[in-house]
Amino acid sequence: MNLNEKDNVASKYLLTENAIVNNTIDIEKLKTRIQHINSKQNISNLDEFTPVGDHTPILVIQVHKNIKHLQHLIISLSEVQGIQTALLIFSHSFYNEPINRLVRNIDFCKVMQIFYPFSLQLHPYKHPGIDPGDCKPGLSKTKNAKYCLIRDARLTEHKQHWWWKANFIFQGTKCLQRHGTPVVFLEEDNYVAPDFLYMFQYITRSLDYFPSVDVMSFGTPWTKNVNMNLLTVESWRPAYDIGLAFNKTTWRKILQLSGQFCMYNDYSWSYSLLHVFESFPKGHVDMVGCVAPRVLSTKEYDNNVNIFKKKTELFSALNLFPKKVQAVFLFGPEGRVERVLKGPPVGRGGWNDLRDQLLCLDPMMSTTTEEKRYNEYEVTRS
To answer: CA torsion, points 283, 288, 289, 291, in degrees to nearest 10?
Structure first.
């Protein structure tokens, strides 16, 4: 398919920048609607595709409100060979009808939507949203800084949402109760290669040869002149957090150490996860990852056209769908060489509020402060 043909496909999913409009919504009604959606867990397009089974590829996309990046992720997913077998689960921290329509327009595979119930949108004037007692930017330099908590709710929300989403997928999703295949975690500003699921099958098979492996990664750091047919076996670290995947067995191991994740003073979910893995028996976890990434980030691009064309042209120039796939690892005179990254012992900050830690420890618990009642607010509130 050439770029002109891809542009025609893209037009189905593209929305103008003005599509997200300012409107108001009743918070309590929205909370009720989200609770209903999370409870029903409706899957669209079931009439057109096979039901969800134990080995259905599951791709979970964490979404905030960057609709430009999200639409290009969806376009790239539509190009993936075998995508009709997959289930896409979109986990939203922001309820917005243009974004919902974008997701509902997907017709190339099965789709489910869930919504993070402790978002800033649903709690705009209290914890876990922006609490009046939180320090504002720059306040740390004033004489009153010691009397308030230095906390950026927009950063804490991302880690809370990631943790809630993983809990919901592995413990609360009805159709995945017996699912044993690794679940792939993506974000709205990712872009996937056409042979993503092709490589997913190879990596999944490789787990039979490497029983010590706990996680998979499809978003390894990009370097030039890499072999498209190689898989690397090494210890996981946050540089490989794009396109991270693991199964329910690994999740149970993580959940047993939830305190290491939730009490670690770092707003980054990936560094918090690294801290959890340091408490595993080996002091780290083994990973199988693509040497040439099959998931790329589009964070550095602000222009719609650039995102689509640059990523499309990049993957088009590569030798995708390799006929032979090999796994490699470093091996020295004393055996396998393990490059293990140790995270900072106390974290990088932004996560020292006890309310955030308690909410994380029990994602179904609402830890709030008194809220001033507002009937309406702007949906586009940050």
So the answer is: 100
Q: Which two tokens stand for residue 133?
A: 């007692």
128 closest CA partner among 358, 370, 356, 365: 356
Residue 132 has a CB neighbour count (10 Å cut-off) of: 13
67-78 and 304-316 helices, crossing angle to 10°: 30
How far, in Å, CA of 87 to CA of 84, rounded? 8
Stretch (H or E) spanning 190:
strand 190-192
382 residues of the chain, pLDDT tens digit each? 554 555 555 555 554 444 433 345 689 999 999 999 999 999 999 999 999 998 999 999 999 999 988 998 999 999 999 999 999 999 999 999 999 999 999 999 999 999 999 999 999 988 999 887 776 655 444 544 554 567 889 899 999 999 999 999 999 898 888 888 999 999 999 999 999 999 999 999 988 889 899 999 999 777 777 788 999 999 999 999 999 999 999 999 999 999 999 999 999 999 999 999 999 999 999 999 999 999 988 887 765 566 667 777 777 777 899 999 988 776 555 555 566 777 777 788 899 899 999 999 987 554 444 444 433 333 333 3
Rounded Cα distance between 380 and 369, Å, is 23
- Helix and strand numbers (H, E) in the chain are 11, 16
Q: Which residues pair with 90 in a beta bridge?
A: 61, 113
Instruction: Tell me the torsion sign for CA atoms 319, 324, 330, 331.
Output: negative
The pairing of strands 87-92 and 110-115 is parallel
DSSP secondary structure letter of residue 286: E
- Tell me the whole-structure pTM to 2 decimals: 0.86
List alpha helices for the chain, DSSP H. Answer: 3-11, 27-40, 67-78, 97-104, 153-167, 196-206, 248-256, 258-262, 269-277, 304-316, 354-361
C-alpha to C-alpha distance for 216 and 236, rounded to whole angstroms: 9
